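Hi W.,

Here's what went into the run:
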Amino acid sequence: MEQEAVSQIRKKDFTPYRFLLVDDSEFARKNIARVVSMLGGLIAGEASTGREAVVKYQEIRPDIVLMDISMPEMEGVDAVGEIIREDKKATIIMVSSLGHKDLVKKAIASGAKHFITKPVQIEYAAKIVKAVLEGKGG
Amino acid sequence: MEDYLTNLSDKELEMLKASFFSHAFDVLEQLGSEILRIENDPEDMESLKNIQRYVHTLKGDSASMGFASLSEAAHRLEDILHMLREKRLCMDRSLGDLLLSFVDAATQILTDGKEKKWSGVDTRGVIEKIDNYLQAGQAGRNKVNTDNKESACQLTEYQQLQAAQALKDGHLVYEIEVGFDPQCRQREVGAFMIKTQLSNLGEALCWAPDIEGAEIENADTVKTILITKSEAEAVRNACRIAGISADVKLNNLSLPPLNSPTHLSSPLAKGELKGCGGDRAAARHDSTLRVDAGRVDEIMNLVGELIIGRSMIAQSVYELRERLGKDETVANLQNIDSLFERSLSELQKGVMKIRMVPIDHVFRRFIRVVRDLSAEKGKEIRLEISGAETELDKGIIDVIGEPLIHMIRNCIDHGIEKKEDREKKGKDKCGVIRINSYHEGGQIIIEIEDDGKGIDIERVKEKAIENGIIGREDADSMNDEDAIDLIFHSGLSTAAEVTETSGRGIGMDAVRNTVEDLKGLIQVRSVPDKGARFTIRLPLTLAIIQGMVFSSEGKSFAFPLSSILEIRRVYKDEIDTINGLESIRWRNRVISILRLREYLNREDVKADNGDGKKYFVIIIGLAERRLGILVDRLTGKRELVIKAMDNGSDMISGASILGDGSIVLILDTASIIKRAAGALVVNE
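Here's what came out:
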């Protein structure tokens, strides 16, 4: 495997960051999982609808959520709102294709910390996720 | 907005619609000419500003009237205009085509909409063109960008005040330039994040480029002006967002004085200042009043009645004075009458002025015709317009456009030669079409002239023979002027139409018909290899005419001055009789003359006693045809208010009442000439 440009990160207690991946496409989840592994994170859970994501979030309390913007049964945007209403400190990064900029803006206005554009460029995405986790990404 | 429309009563809705359509068509027309203007001079910032304003208006208005697709296209067009404004696009021919295709589509959609029919046209084609253009432009974008990297924040006057106040209050004002991370692909959202961050620190006044427009996606940097209490470092940190911003430049601003142009650093400063003129023009525009033409016509009719009434009073006053001699009351009456006369003539002029529209409305359509058709025919043609400010009656303006356009098409199609041919003849390879208009003695003259090959007389004759309009012997004996006149023959021009022009359904005969309907004249001059000139003479207005009043065989008649070419005296022996028809020689032509008696079939017209040795002959012309009318006595030139009358004779187009109460019959030039032409044929 090629040299990874983005170094792995750990929490202060040296445990890995726990991720919740939300996307209705399994392929997309697999793809974004590469970002998690690049950063040495742990996939704590997956969800394929907004509704499921809200439930899963309560259940596993992840450190960060990578959330698709457009899904069946509650859009990503609305899920962001629900999650943040429950946990004001929730860290959510939106994952979206190019067409949804208004939705992404809405999600950010509702409290999402950043966004990643599909098709995901792993390194670039990892850089963003890392910055967000280190508190520099917005 | 649709809901808002449904809350209106039918009448209100109709009125709203009417005003929407009339305004929208106006705007489209103006938009079209501004586009052509900026195409000629891409640096014309005033034009660009007007274009932006028109498109913006169309976007808003058409959305609220339910023309969603039109509004959508206008919205997309705004993106392009914005990029033009920022010099990230260059104005060129293909962009001109794109903008004009929007105008065309919009005109069609609105025309259909107005006639309440389903429009097969939508703006998808235009939107697609815009997208294609933007995509194609993407490649060339960097080139344009390096030429002009600066895009400046433009503060509105209010924002300037705001910033000035903030400075006074001890706040800091920064000009911030954030470079995007090259990998950032949704820059609009990126900019939105920067904006969100900055909003925690203070107020960002304006963004360049617009962070909600399409152009932000192609921008390398985004600029803003921030009013804040935070120190530079805090601002810088707020702008640094992983994956979005690369470098952040900060400039501490001290504000320019308030009366300076409304931006802080801009290469477009000059253009902006010029732009202010556009706004003033817009303001002027708003002070115009839209009135239904019918109302003006009603007033015009009333004015006509008043003028006749006044001249009757004048006649009575005259008679009173004759009877009573020096009388104070009569003298008073006379004074009052002359006061009336002056006021009435002002009133008449005033009302006529309302109906007057600059011919520019018609002329500006030609720019487009020449632009498109010359490209299509592979010819290079310059259009020179003069006298566009000349005013004429709205009723005439409305109908003269089509024929003129046809003539211009003819100039392009047949008149101006191909580049190679022109060069062979030693002419400039760029052909010229000149259009001019001016007033001359109560008439309006419109000239269309080209410097092409002129009318090919032999070919016209050939065609006329082919189509059975004339025989070969006629052709041989025919002089050039008469031969040129053949182009107005319906048989001929239709035939030419089918084979040569793209079948617009209007030929030179239709041009002639329109000019005739307007009581006008058309003349042609053509010199081989030098070009052709068409001169159209039209009356200024259709309601009041300048007429030549004369009496023939005891009755008063009048011809509109606009159809009179010449009045001359002829002696009895100058009149020849050919084939039983009387004729005279006039300017190298033989023209028939006639006595009205035979044509009007009026019993009260006494037979000419034949004593007279000399007569007046009024030579009238209609389009290209000429005819002489024998008259006994000329009364003189009068302003005649036309009263329509139903007299069963199409030879008389109306009547007018003179000051002495006598009636003048206004002769219909067209019918008389046609009838005379018919008589000629019968006699042959």
